[in-house]
Design brief:
Helix content: 55-70%
Strand content: 5-15%
Distance between the termini: 62 Å
Largest sheet: 7 strands, mixed
Number of helices: 26
Number of domains: 3
Length: about 675
């Protein structure tokens, strides 16, 4: 098996892994003599050692990755092998010796692992939402002639001898993928194909931009002037001047719900922060105990209970779908299948490009001790499951091996987009029946997750302290499936209908009612965020009723509080909040929100997977890194939006928009 990471290849040379200790000893003597003449210091120096601060969670000794891979540089022919970096994983536990020593060892191990050593599956690969607090790791630099199985067998025997009669049990695991040697990059067919697409897009963008500039100069007009005509719109679809003009157009049509742009962008930032927390919890820290300490601080619940961000997206999606569809029905422009085709073509081109990036060249964008687990596994899943993404069924099929962690939402959004007319059309056709049907649908959408949690004894929300098994069951059966996430979307459909009916009316809301609405909205948000404090504590004993009530109601409650914000601001009762959220600066930021949603995972995962040493984590460091990720993501997203998303959006509109000559 080979995976190519920049100039590093995860490889396993042909070698016999069924070696006994005498053979290994003989080989080791030969290797030792050879190394003594060349690179002994570098090989030894680059291996890991027992670090300080292990009681604070500093249990991942990564050594010096780059020094190890360069240790035998220039001596390979003389040695007959090259240096190899192996990251060994140790699982520590206690054995009952009938004495108080076990209690002491258990307490020490719990301190080292933040109490999670019996809650984590250290052999999982790629599940980037699972914290890693009990993963003991030790880096070793050794000759490439030694296989991972050889190393595992030898270290296992040594650990058994060293811990004999101590009450400590050590299990050693060394995977082939955890051993890396320096190697030249080798492009695969898929990589070449993806690079070819990028080159073609660059040429197309250059040609379209040149054509646009020439046409504009011929008209003796400014470059920013739009070129009219369908054929010219197609030819200038990839024009950078044209697309940058569209991106930074701050005009807001009167019929637009003005605060949605800001809420969409701010929710995107919240999603990014949630995923940043996920990637950070898998990183090696020198103070991993910091994670369990923050759980005890109720003020940090905003961070620990941040998975409500997507429910805001679902609400907004429902509002826009309902509001737009009702306008189309009023003008007899609604088409179910043409609407779906437009939606699919709107979402898929930039999505497919990012899937291609994850499937191919992402593995060449870095290297490091944890690069394989953090990036290469994700890339492998994309190569295997890319078609599930493009069919928008990956939140149901093989949803624990997602190509792009955030992609489940896009599938759910498409499903709900297709389902929406079942509720919106009755609202337009027969108000009373439509409202009744929507209320029934809302009740069912609340009952479904509650019933799933109750009958299967699932947790009500995910947190950093629940077991890996509970987290996997929660995401697989409660968090990802569309039918479990419908309540915010259905509420959004109802809100969109209300805004449509009142779009040309100035409604009069009493000041007392307005204040009550805002206070209630804020109290609901506080209750949803901070009300889960007990549920995520280490000493919390599972209660199925609490889990059911919170799991079934909190997403709807959150969406209800945001719905008031959208409605009040849209009808002029938002005060300074409406002034802030309706600021025109959010217009271009909202336009690149989809591109940010697609790209931010790559930015964050590559940043985490490149780590060479454990880092000290605190609130300042977290925000410092997060702000850096925001800037990089915005820049990358602007490129994706201007060079790819916007051109295909222009083409899609030209191909799917109905012609109305009389208008």
């Amino acid at each position: 098996m080979e995976n190519h990471l920049g100039k590093t290849t995860l490889s396993s040379p042909d070698r016999d892994s069924n070696l006994d200790l005498p053979v290994l000893s003989s080989r080791a003597q030969h290797v030792t003599r050879a190394l003594a003449n060349y690179a002994t210091e570098a090989v030894l120096d680059s291996s890991g050692s027992i670090p300080s601060g292990i009681l604070e969670g500093n249990i991942r000794s990564l050594g010096n990755y780059d020094e190890c891979l360069k240790a035998t540089a220039g001596y390979e022919k003389s040695l007959g092998f090259t240096s190899q970096y192996c990251l060994t994983m140790l699982r520590l536990d206690t054995v009952d010796k009938g004495s108080g020593g076990k209690v002491t060892l258990d307490r020490i191990l719990d301190m080292m692992t933040s109490g999670r050593r019996h809650r984590e599956w250290n052999n999982h690969k790629g599940l980037s939402y699972l914290p890693e607090c009990s993963r003991f790791e030790m880096a070793l630099c050794l000759p490439s002639s030694c296989s991972a199985k050889d190393l595992e067998a030898t270290l296992g025997r040594l650990a058994k001898e060293a811990t004999k009669d101590t009450g400590l049990h050590v299990e050693v695991n060394v995977e082939e993928s955890a051993c890396q040697v320096s190697s030249q990059m080798k492009l695969r067919k898929g990589d070449i194909f993806f690079f070819s697409i990028i080159i073609f897009l660059v040429v197309l963008t250059a040609a379209s931009s040149t054509y646009h500039i020439i046409q504009t100069r011929k008209k003796k007009d400014k470059i920013i002037t739009a070129v009219e005509g369908t054929s010219n719109k197609l030819l200038t679809a990839f024009s950078l001047p044209n697309n940058f003009r569209k991106l930074f157009n701050f005009y807001v049509p009167e019929e637009t719900i003005k605060n949605i742009d800001s809420i969409r962008f701010l929710s995107t930032l919240w999603v990014m922060f949630t995923h940043k927390s996920f990637s950070a919890m898998q990183e090696p820290w020198s103070n991993k105990a910091f994670l369990s300490e923050t759980v005890k601080d109720i003020s940090k619940m905003v961070f620990h209970n941040s998975m409500l961000d997507v429910d805001t997206f679902f609400l907004l999606g429902g509002v826009v779908r309902s509001y737009t569809m009702l306008n189309q029905l009023d003008h007899k422009e609604f088409g179910y299948f043409t609407g779906f085709i437009h939606r699919y073509l709107r979402l898929t081109p930039p999505y497919a490009l990012m899937i291609g990036f994850f499937s191919t060249v992402v593995v060449y964008c870095g290297s490091g001790p944890i690069w394989y687990r953090g990036v290469v596994v994700q890339s492998d899943w994309c190569r295997e499951n890319w078609f599930l993404n493009l069919l928008y069924v990956n939140n149901y099929i093989d949803n624990q091996r997602l190509c792009m962690l955030q992609s489940w939402y896009l599938s759910a959004d498409i499903h709900l987009f297709l389902l929406a007319p079942v509720l919106v059309y009755p609202l337009w056709r027969c108000r009373k029946f439509g409202i009744l049907l929507t209320v029934i649908a809302l009740i069912i959408s609340i009952i479904l997750p509650a019933a799933t949690i109750y009958f299967n004894k699932y947790v009500g929300l995910a947190s950093s302290l629940i077991s890996d098994g509970d987290a996997i069951n929660f995401t697989k059966y409660v968090y990802y499936p569309t039918h479990q996430r419908m309540s915010p979307y259905f509420l959004g459909l109802g809100l969109g209908y209300a805004l449509h009916c009142l779009r040309n009316q100035n409604i009069n809301i009493k000041k007392s009612i307005c204040i009550l609405g805002w206070v209630t909205s804020l109290l609901i948000q506080a209750a949803v965020i901070f009300g889960a404090y007990r549920l995520i504590q280490a000493d919390y004993k599972y209660n199925v009723v609490e889990a059911t009530l919170y799991g079934g109601l909190h997403r709807f409650a959150w969406a209800l509080s945001v719905a008031w914000l959208v409605f009040a601001c849209a009808k002029g009762y938002g005060g300074f909040i409406n002034t802030l959220l309706s600021a025109r600066m959010f217009r271009p930021l909202s336009r690149i929100s989809y591109a940010m949603y697609l790209t931010h995972i790559a930015v964050m995962f590559m940043s985490s997977a490149r780590l060479r040493t454990p880092k000290y984590m605190d609130e300042y460091y977290m925000m410092h890194e997060f702000l850096g990720d925001i800037i990089i993501t915005i820049v990358v997203s602007m490129v994706l939006h201007v060079c790819f998303e916007l051109p295909f959006l222009t083409i899609t509109k030209l191909l799917t928009t109905r012609r109305h000559p009389n208008k």
